[in-house]
């Protein structure tokens, strides 16, 4: 059993592409299948090496590895062989019509209230007509003659699916410059590399009908592939995602400091009958069932991702965070702040609070007097997790303050923030000298 994720390196991959990658990787893990990463770079104008590198980096960031990988531009000889096979069997036929001629034909058919399907005029061309066209300097491109019937398959997500081939134009598989189109290259790769399951976006539904027909023309047995078409992911406003706008690219999420585990947990279950939960890749894989994916389009909701990100961060052990924390940050620091960080970028701020030089706001005269009194009651070193309690007990006894009046001015003076991690945990990390200095500044 083998699955594949086959992105085109034409931009930064977005959360919609990632959803497909995750679905394939989870399905492969669940069923012990091989997972192939194929770089679909047959479109030479739009493909860029830097995007291929970027998508490998993005998948690795998500924690998705692959068992084998290749790019289509390395297999051009295999496509050339398939092209010859299809020419020999008469399934590929040369065409000479220009874009303008085709557009005029389409318009005429629409005026006659006929579906705008290619009329196969070139299929009826005689050998002499062809020789004449070539003598006039025309170079053919090649269309695949589709079968007449209906192609049907049991889609793991969409259920029984059908594509009526006569309502589709014969697809161009080879351009006039001899380059192959994705439609053919993809079938050749899937057949020759032993792919068994194709999980991809529903934008490929019609393609699937065509590609089944091509596969069978190349000798594949009926039912050779199992298909699952997952609905497209839309943005919050219901718009289409595109590699051309990178707002919801994985790169942007990474730069925003979102945890990759949260992204995987969210995308694995978004638009399915299972609620997104902060689970590891292995946990997600043991329960993953593509049949539970809904048939309707799902919307990516940043608030839901953030909520999940918070849960993921709150559970993270220090060992998983060590490389991401500011230099010098300790386990005690991580355990103190992890309940209060939504994004990795906030960690730097809390690290400044405990180990750096924040300047707290100056408080009014009455609070200033209170803070100086608190300063005079600061316990001696060493400090530990009990120090906050013994200090505030002593302040309570000396000032008669309690509740918010007791704690709030201290928190603001020491952290510069109204809210945050437990003071009990922060205080020993800040240390005596820093605490004393901040109390003095806030009391000025
Ligand atoms: N919005 C989306 N939601 C879910 N899946 C998507 C979405 N857009 C593309 N895909 C899927 O992502 C996979 C990778 O496809 P591909 O790299 O061709 O993406 P694309 O965004 O359609 O790119 P391009 O604009 O370059 O054609 C395919 O399975 C495709 O169906």
Secondary structure tally: strands: 12
Top-tier CATH class of the largest domain:
Alpha Beta
List segments where confidence is low: pLDDT < 50 over at least 5 consecutive residues.
none
Specify the number of helices. 19
CATH architecture of the largest domain: 3-Layer(aba) Sandwich
Mean pLDDT: 95
Quick take:
By secondary structure, the chain is mainly α. Helix content is 46%, strand content 11%.
Keywords:
444 residues, elongated, Arc Repressor Mutant, subunit A, Rossmann fold, single chain, 46% helix, mainly alpha, three-stranded antiparallel β-sheet, binds adenosine-5'-triphosphate, 19 helices, three-stranded parallel β-sheet
Descriptive notes:
InterPro entries: aa-tRNA-synth_I_cd-bd, aa-tRNA-synth_I_codon-bd_sub2, aa-tRNA-synth_I_CS, aa_tRNA-synth_I_cd-bd_sf, Glu-tRNA-ligase_bac/mito, Glu/Gln-tRNA-synth, Glu/Gln-tRNA-synth_Ib_cat-dom, GluQ/Sye. Monomer. This protein is mostly helical and 444 residues long. It folds into two domains: 239 residues, 3-Layer(aba) Sandwich (Rossmann fold); 88 residues, Arc Repressor Mutant, subunit A. Helix content is 46%, strand content 11%. The chain is built from 19 helices and twelve strands. The strands form five sheets. The chain has a three-stranded parallel beta sheet, with helices on one face. Strand 9, helix 7 and strand 10 form a beta-alpha-beta unit. Helix 6 crosses helix 7, helix 9 crosses helix 11 and helix 15 packs antiparallel against helix 19. The longest helix has 17 residues. It is elongated, with a radius of gyration of 31 Å. The termini are far apart. The site of adenosine-5'-triphosphate has 16 residues, from helix 1 and strand 9.
